[in-house]
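Retro notes, structure queue

What went well: the backlog is down to a handful. What didn't: a couple of records were mislabeled last round, so from now on we paste the full input next to the output in the thread. Example, using Drug/metabolite transporter (DMT)-like permease from Paenibacillus amylolyticus:
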Amino acid sequence: MKYYVSVLAGAMSYGILSTIVVLAYGEGYKLGEVVGTQLITGFILSWMLALYTRFNIKRKQNNAGKSPIAPAHVFQKLTWKQRLMLMAAGTPTVITGLVYYQSLRYIPASLAIILLFQFTWISVLIQAVSKRQRPNKVTLFTLVILFGGTLLAAGFLEQGLAEFNGLGIALGLMAAVSYSLFVLFSGKAVPSAHPAFRSAWMVTGGLVLLCILFPPTFLFNGLIWSQLLVFGLLLGFFGAFIPPVLFAIGVPHIGGDMAGILGAVELPVAVLLSAIVLHEHVSVLQWFGVIVVLLGVALPELHKLRVKRTSPSYS
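Corresponding output:
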């Protein structure tokens, strides 16, 4: 149960980000500054956790006379090949942040999160292609439900596509693809390593890529000591630190499919905050669409449980 709660809490943390980013844009900060402070904060917090974990392990080893007091992977020393693999697995978080946060300049936060949430069916599609397996009828039915729910939740049926910025919609969908890759890779990259070290190296990889794309000039011109620091701390904690750590703990144990389903909680959290904090209009029909999307995400897992319970071997 703790692994399910871990992934659930990580997804809820992601749901908070769009509101914080819109508030940061309102103060005049730029994309590179917002994402940069987020990742630097996440980098510091992640390595503090990793170093504390290493210290704690060594202390327990000394006290217990090196007795087996924890799973074997806790004591594993990562090779540079494994570290590079984890760093590469962390790069989708940067791509997701950049395109998702940029989309918020063109479309409402409530719409941006709905587009990002398309990672649910994109993840299914990626896994089907990688495994060379045609989706079954339940999966195809689920995709139809998700598509219909998205049209309702995004407000396309009420306002029409002409009312929305095409670039913003494209960026939101690009973020969904990148987020799908992160969810899948986070569970497959060196799963035997301790979650604290996995998360720290993944955040490190993301920070290296970001510094190449957007040199962190805000660290030297004094801008970091403005209100940007507050936004960076919030984004770093809820975006670059909490989700990777919790996903690193939970995804290897529950699988990418279930992680995608639990990630559904990100959608209502983000839409609710957009309505309350940013005062964005979310109609009753859009909320109905959100519910339809959530039901569509849960449908495959509910089908699996039904098949398992009706199976002759289930007793």
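Agreed that this is the format going forward. Reviewer comment attached to the example: The two ends are 21 Å apart (CA to CA).
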